[in-house]
Structures are given as structure tokens and as C-alpha cells.
Design goal:
By secondary structure, the chain is mainly alpha-helical. The longest helix is centred in the N-terminal third of the chain and has 27 residues. The radius of gyration is 41 Å and the shape is elongated.
């Protein structure tokens, strides 16, 4: 070690050397300290991050949680209706969401709102009719489903619902009247072919009945009801 280095370590070194050491140490310390402007910037950034983090945490806490998918659908379409009450499509979807959640009175209320602006909306009419059936309001449901048929007598779903309704009550002529237009338009509707076969069987037209049962089996080869119908007629499938 040279003499200059030794003097810096010597407690008896001259005052001038000690002063030089102090100045050097002060410069070294200044270089290690964070500049004031940078410290302020770091604090601001930390506060911003904490604010965003708090927002995210609050968002996670306050985000609604639904027990069922049906409830989530109801909430989604309710928001759409609130945003635009004149949107019949959103209102129809809200009604269907209520129907899926088995809230049939609420569903019917939404369908009625759609029908108040568009009385011939077959989707609202059909779904209202099916909701009425579930509530045990059979005569009201029958009336509404016939309104579907007045708008579109080939509406397969409405025809099937009416056909099954009349089959349960033994009203086979009404069944034929309700189902015939739709089954003529959609031959591949095996359910409708079967219902027509059943009606003709009960009305004593075995030949027409067999033809309908066979058409049902053409499009649904394993349909047990049609096979049973042929068996009752005494013919092989």
C-alpha cells in the first residue's frame, strides 16, 4: 500500500487529508441516494397500482354470482331489455329465460309484452301456449296455439302440441284438423305422421292409419309407437 493510502487510514493524518476524505464520502453517499424526483415518481406509481388493484379486488367481490345458468340468462336479457325496452327480440329471449327457469308467470308476462306490439309473433305465441299448458291452463293454451296455426298452419311444433293435446282427450277429428297442414308440408316429421296414424286408427280408417305409421317408420325406423300401431292393426312393420 502506498503512502497516500496509509495516510488516509492514519488517525493522525493532517486535517487537509481528513477534509478531502469527508468530501469524497459525501459525494459517494449522494450517489447512493435516490433522486427526489424519482422517489416521487415511484410513490405515484405505487399509489396508481394500489388503486387499480383495489378496483380489481372490489370488482371480484362485487361481481354478481349466479346459482344457475338460468339465472345468468335472466340477468343478461333483463339488462338488454332495460337498455332498450322496445327490443322485442331481447324481451322474447327474457321470456324464454324465465320459462327455462320455470318462472312461467314471468315468462307469459314478457310474451304478452311482445304480443302487444306484434300480435302475430309465432315464437311468443307458441312459448306462451306451452307455458300455459305447464300451469294447467289447458283451454287457454289451446286457444293460443290455434292463434299460431292461424298465422302459420304448417308450424310443426304447434301442430304437435295440439295433436298430443287432442290425442289425450280422444278428440281425433280435431287432431287431424290441427296436424294435417303441417304434416303435408313436412313429410319427414315422424311424430306428426304417428299422430295422424293414431287418429285414423281411432276413426276406423285402418288403411290410412297403416300408411301414416309406415311413413313415421320411414323417417324414424325405431319408433316404438308406430310399431305398436301396426301391431294393433295386425300388420307387420
Amino acid at each position: 500500500m502506498n503512502s497516500q493510502d496509509d495516510s488516509q487510514l492514519d488517525p493522525d493524518a493532517p486535517d487537509g487529508d481528513i477534509a478531502a476524505d469527508s468530501q469524497a464520502a459525501s459525494q459517494y453517499d449522494d450517489r447512493q441516494l435516490v433522486p427526489g424526483w424519482l422517489a416521487v415518481l415511484v410513490v405515484v406509481l405505487l399509489l396508481a397500482v394500489m388503486g387499480v388493484g383495489g378496483y380489481l379486488v372490489r370488482g371480484l367481490v362485487t361481481t354478481p354470482r349466479y346459482e344457475t345458468p338460468e339465472e345468468a340468462e335472466i340477468s343478461k336479457w333483463q339488462e338488454a331489455v332495460d337498455e332498450d325496452p322496445s327490443d322485442d327480440g331481447a324481451r322474447l329471449s327474457l321470456g324464454f329465460a324465465y320459462q327455462q327457469a320455470e318462472r312461467y308467470d314471468d315468462a307469459i308476462a314478457e310474451y304478452d309484452r311482445v304480443l302487444s306490439s306484434e300480435p302475430s309473433d309465432t315464437a311468443a305465441l307458441y312459448n306462451k301456449g306451452m307455458s300455459l299448458f305447464v300451469l294447467g291452463r289447458d283451454e287457454d293454451a289451446e286457444e293460443v296455439l290455434w292463434k299460431v296455426m292461424e298465422v302459420d298452419d304448417t308450424h310443426v311444433l304447434a301442430a304437435k302440441a295440439l295433436g298430443e293435446y287432442y290425442a289425450e282427450r280422444g278428440q281425433y277429428r280435431s287432431l287431424v284438423r290441427a296436424v294435417r297442414p303441417a304434416v303435408q308440408m313436412t313429410e319427414s316429421a315422424a311424430d306428426l305422421q304417428y299422430l295422424m296414424g293414431l287418429a285414423y286408427e281411432k276413426l276406423g280408417r285402418a288403411d290410412w292409419s297403416e300408411a301414416r305409421y309406415r311413413l313415421a317408420l320411414r323417417y324414424y325406423p325405431d319408433m316404438p309407437e308406430a310399431k305398436e300401431g301396426l301391431a294393433r292393426l295386425g300388420v307387420k312393420p
